[in-house]
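Q: Structure for this?
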Amino acid sequence: MAITGRDTFLGRVRGALGRSPGVPEPDAATHLGLTQDDVRSAADGVRREMADQADSLLDAVADSAATAGWKVRRVGSPEDAADVVTEICIATDATRVLRSDQDVFDAVPVDAALGAKGVTPGIATVGEAGADIPSLKDVAFDSEIGITGVDYAIAETGTVVLHPRQGLSRLVSLAPGRHIAILNKGDVLPSLDELFTLERAGYQDGSLEGSMNLISGPSRTGDIAATIVDGIHGPFEVYLIIVG
Amino acid sequence: MLPKTERFKQGARETIADPVIQESMEAVYNGFHNNRQSAGAATEGWDDQRDRGRAIKEHTIANLDYYLEMLTDKVDANGGNVFFADDSAAATEYILSLARTRDVKTVIKSKSMVSEEMSLAHEMEAIGIEAVETDLGEYIIQLAGEAPYHIIAPAIHKSQDQVAEMFAETTGTDPGQTPEELTTTARGMLRETFQRADMSVTGVNFAVAESGSIVLVTNEGNGRMCTSIPRVHVAVMGMEKIVPSMQDLAMMLRILIRSATGQRISSYVTMVNGPRRDEEEDGPEEFHLVIVDNGRMRLLADPKLREALYCLRCGACLNACPVYRKVGGHSYGWVYPGPIGAVVSPVLSGLKQGKDLPFASSLCGACREACPVKIDIPNMLLHLRQQIVEGPSEVRSVGWMERLGWRAWRFGNMKSGRFRTGGKMANLMGRPFAQGGMFRRLPPPLSGWTRSRDLPLTASSPFRDRFNKRRTRSEG
């Protein structure tokens, strides 16, 4: 789009540093110097590790997610996952339920399971791009529960990673009071390092979504009398359903 | 905000004399401090990670022009706009004019220390735009009309009762609410504001040069609200907040968050790569990145102060500092309190006015010890002290009385005769005012010394005389 005031500003930065324009000497401190092939092969390594260690990573994230404040439920099949979703909706008296339009719902029959209990989840999508953003926002704020899949989870931190995109609104995991995330085996990364390796490899291959969210527990504050309270702006309760 | 750094001593005295705040804050600082220490101890290779974090910052700042250029090229390529602002006035003007031309009625703000430098919320209100701080702590101090008390916990000095009273005045709720109830009250008020906001202003915890991304770290989720709902998103950053590569983020996030709250990760980390993509369901239509100098160039130009630009704004040095813990956040008189504030605030907002801040340290080194990137704050404080006393005339700031006093001292010490006579005179003239060989209370300008300790009277018989007497005796 536009860059304003850069030349003079950078001139002053160079003046302050006593530096002339040019590429810095390579420095091992940053990963910037890795070649595209380095990053790509590191990313391949990460994907292999995710597959090879899928079971232990799933156990690890179940623990760390609980520590981070997720209510963790482990189930054996997609059908069981849909039943747990229904169970949560019933237990919390939720009737206004919203879900994303992600592939995970092709396997996890949330609509059918909820429908059997008389709840019809809304699907958070605006159809044609930009056609009806205000009403999606209103629906999201009015919903009691938002359900999404998970792009990745991170074992180190108990984190769920989501890239908002077509079918996955930014608000489904944020505006409703409760968020349910459904995680499949094989989608767990060991740590933040592997996440950013994959992100970088994807970026170098030309893919960069508008944003990425790392979610690690409920919305929290400690700003009143240093007392930790869950649920200031985002969900006050978050559930992680682990399938597999 | 306008600096009130010259009020440091007065503010410090008031806070020290306030037993309520002294008692309540001690537990808070200890909590932060202990959480950070346990988080560090529980992290494999913690010290090594800090070294690596420092190395990244060192390299980035040493080549800042290169990385700023890369960052802004990428933001541009991602469909965002970049504005370079020399000072807070230029940044403010840019953002206000954006708000005007986009017909903005309500702005939601996520915590940003740079926007505090600009008093941005205040400037917006002045031209009739509703500007609401959405970090709960910032929201509370906005209601109170105060400055942040702590970098990561802006309203930490407010008691539960004080917050309850403020909320009661604003919304008519019961003034006896618990923190849980107060949080629910704030949730209701702020969610209503989020929904109608048409512009947001956020800070930036890290900007990634290679991809033009900005990263926001929050626990509350207000950063996510600000980057999801309004049609215009403006991110404001100090020019130093860059890391070169996405892969550098993992470690920087680790050391920042553990040092700030002791968490392994905050509830939310949000990476923004420009405006919403066309096919996306929601998100801002416009993204603006405002990169601010506002005095940072002075830190950059001085090799001894440059490392102040490595700061991640985690607040760990505040919790560790025996001076901050006693004098509190407001005494420092500007946006940045504590040890790092004692370096940054005077340089950014005026060294002459803030001349007391670099002296507000016992140089014990606890800040350097706590810092996730091992910034040598004590060394920088010494450097600033030297500038205040001996630096170029536009920054030097020593009263004529002090200068005169030291000149007399120098004169008196130049010759042994003068020294001897001076000592005797001081003893003779001081004797009537001393009690038990000590001055209990001296008139200004020496009253500062005797306020908290006694000054001994010079000896009636100086050491040299006694030494000579003894030697004569033993030899005789």
